[in-house]
## 1
Amino acid sequence: MEVIKKALADGRRTLTEHESKQVLREYGIPVTREIEVNNRESLIEAIGEIGFPLVLKGCGSDLTHKTERNLVHVDIRNEEEAAAAFDRIMKEVKKEGGTVLIQEMVKGSRELVVGLTRDAQFGPCVMFGLGGIFTEILRDVSFRVAPLEKKDALQMMQEIKGRKILEGVRGLPPADIDQIAQILTSLGRIGLEQEHVKEIDINPVILDGSRPVAVDALVVLQK
């Protein structure tokens, strides 16, 4: 893929969030609508295209711990708020060659994590589990070696302790199990077809009603 080739040619080992989502989109994985900007003029154009409410994020291949660095501003509801958030983020990321992502705000209380890791013994392995801020604490995840068929993906969803999150609970609709299965099988395809992809971390995947949407993503590369 061109975005991967370019990053490797530039000597980079990670894709930006925006580039990572380009890879996912190529494989049919649903991602947030977003536009990358680096000036006020393009900010206003992006706002007009995406609409409020918005999330503004710092974007760059070397930007880590964005929330801790105050590089993520959520629930932006007017141009004044957007401009102020843009200026704050841009001041921080400009020196690192970064930009700002103007992103639709996906609403949902249920968060999942999916990913890919390239194991030295088994090759590309796909991961599924509970996402959000408790991913590292709960470690409620399931793994499968690629390639995956739909039945493998469905089994993975049943193996986590928190599987009831996918059901219709407290007035929420059941998750679109078929689309989640498609995400997992697509990750397996990426692992098999893109040899330069070492890891993929998609956290969170938010359930917007029943629809899963990749809100944040990181692709790590290898030679």
Note: Residues 34-104 form a domain with the Dna Ligase; domain 1 fold (CATH 3.30.1490.20).
## 2
Amino acid sequence: MKILVCGKGGCGKSTISALLAKEINRRGNKVLVIDTDESNFGLHSQLGMDPPQDFMNYFGGKKVLFEKVKTLQKRWKTDELPKQYLSEKENIKLLAMGKIYDFGEGCACPINALTSRFLEIIELKDNEFLIADTDAGIEHLGRGVDKGCDIILVVIDPSQESIKLAEKITKMAKGINKSFYYVLNKIDDEIKEILLESVDKNKVITAIPNDKRIFKNCLKGEELNFKLKEIEKLADFLEKEHNISITLWG
């Protein structure tokens, strides 16, 4: 199953991606985490890993990436990925598509093009999950990145901006016939009720509370090495959907 995690900047996409990857891994599955955010440098630390080299360098770097992506036809399996571009811990692999480092080096469009094509050609085994942590907003949808995923998880934090963005993502996801669900984040009981009045509550899978451990670890750049029952609930749902998919199409 290919899971794409999206939402506004600062809503907790990377945190949820890391916690979810660890929970799915605890259940005996292999997880490939794809870092598609060119401006976020923290996902590796949340997973307890060293930062991997940018995968775009495998193709010669950003300047030639557009042309190289056009020629990508071969289907790849996770165990065929070049190890020099992976960070690994237990049965979790982290692949970073590319980052922006220097003033004036140009936009992230080639990186998005690589991500879009990669999600289409990567093949997963029955016990493998892919989690793609996206950049903020909806550019990934505009660039067609989401067409290669199976499920879109929209992270919604307590803000009107987040609610409005979720509405836009929902409309686009319906337009490309992708399954989508909501994860409420950084909430308490009062905020949860307000959010459930603002979005389709039937699409809400779990609601993750403000947790000081998450805040502290992210602030210090430390691994998120604990469990949350709300993340377990999310993993339960995704495993069920995955098993249904295998039964129908496997």
Note: The chain has one domain: 2-249.
## 3
Amino acid sequence: MSAVAPVFRGGRRLIAGSLGLALLGALLLVAGAIVDRRRFFFSYLAAYAYAVSVAVGALLFLMTCNAMRAGWPVAVRRLIEVIVGALPLLAVLFAPLLFGLDILYPWLDPASIPDEHARELVRHKAPYLNLPFFLIRTAVYFAIWIGVAALLRRWSLRQDDDPARGAGDRPQALSAGALPLAGLALSFAAFDWLMSLDPTWVSTMFPVYYFAGGFVSAIALLTVLTYAADRAGLLPGINESHYYALGRLLFAFTIFWGYAAYFQLMLIWLANLPGEVQFYTRRSRGPWEAVSAALAFAQLVIPFFVLLSYRVKRNPALLAAVGAWILAAHYIDLHWLVVPEHAPRGFPYHWIDLGALLAIGGASAAFAALRLRGRRLVPINDPELPRALRYESV
């Protein structure tokens, strides 16, 4: 297998292009910080939460595959590790948000909240919503994600270099044991970074909603990368059945995202409590009403009906296009979660949004590609690889 599995030689054009986009995004962000400092931080948080959700979604998918000893994902495991590989950089990219926490989170200064009831409610949450504890929790989240990802990556690459140094059962044991911790870290990150933008709003379904969007988007990105690597001849042995398996996952977790979105809306709407309904009323007025409707179609209705097709799920090019669509829809979703807290009445989108997306996305892509240099995209010495490449599904 090693003789026919070429080494990734660095992807110079990919890295150069990604760095170019990151530089353009950084320039737009600098201009945005000068023109509208408040919008800068909300745009940056939307793009940042988007990137983290995809990277952690890929980590959870990798851990799930390891824990259940799934066969066919071994064929594309290295690509999953590529997505996860952006996590160390994303930990660093949290730093710009530190300069705007007082702008993003009203709980840092309860006295600035005009409504007396809301002000007292926020003060009641002070033992949890306070700056030192917020920063400690964020550090713990990244320590869990990066620590698990680093061990899984090390064991995987070590096996490529020396078959005798196989990881054995360690990836399965670590993944099964740490999966609840990684999932809880993502849940609390959703509470801290996104839900506390409005510290009076509460939804126990919110972490599930955030996880569902990130998980299906991680599979979507994996689908796009699989198609690109396959076209470049870097994934020998990939067949239509592997794409069909990815397509089934995209279909299933598109439905799961829709389930989470619907039940969060239904439960809040039925309860009809002012402190909960305000999240949706803020997003159902003015131009945000059109965005809400477009989001439902973009992330649920259209992918659902397209992925119903057996032929689409077995067509690599079409499936990659669906994956790219889901990735775009997920960004609209994260933007929809964040920006209305800043501009509930203004036009939804701003050129600063593009700058944040280019800066974080471009830097993450370049960093992940650099970490892959000199490695194969196929785990050539994994004992499960032959079975993974023989995978057939009808």
Note: Residues 240-271 form the longest helix (32 residues).
## 4
Amino acid sequence: MTQSVSPFSLADRVALVTGANTGLGAALAEGLAAAGADIVAVGRSDPAATANAVRALGRRLHWVRADLGDRPDYPAIVAEAVAGLGSADILVNNAGIIRRSDALEFSEADWDAVLEVNLKACFFLSQAFARHVLGAGRGGKIINIASMLSFQGGIRVASYTASKSGVAGLTRLLANEWAAQRINVNAIAPGYFATNNTEALRSDEQRNAEILRRIPAGRWGDPRELQGAAVFLASAASDYVHGAILPVDGGWLAR
């Protein structure tokens, strides 16, 4: 009797994950590896801990060193990924930075830095990835990491809000253009997760209390709780899902 393959299996797939050295990116890489994918970690910092976790799962990890905030050669990143692990089937645009300041005081430097990493790199790495998979005659999966601030305004994070609103728009635009070519472009919108990016909020007693009161689940998210959504959007289970933005937020947006 032939055993059927799970539609959630990522066996023999290679996933590029930006910012996989820590936080949400590390958890996403581990979740994809647990489903069978090999990982290309794209970023400027050595993802040693993530590599150990991925290899413990029996999968490979290849590091492509690139600073997404310094106008990298995006096609070269994809080419190096393919050279390292033989393929590129999934792209997770996770890398992101944040700058906090009142809008009246917000600097142009902080605006440009955030938009460069969070939005520009998301678009041009997606473009390079799409060109590769179409040139190879097959489809692919792109997962962008959006935010609650793709839906809301937030406070004191002007460039972050602009960038994540842009990520939501890009997700829909690229889905419109590439769905017929078998490239699925979707996004995950994490709620409030315990990561380096949210340390300032968690350390602020008043803001932390305000946030927890708003979350129906009553707690900050664990980065591992994003893994199921990522595996779904990376796998054949989501082949007819295009342009979706999936909140994983403990019920924040339902409040």
Note: The two ends are 49 Å apart (CA to CA).
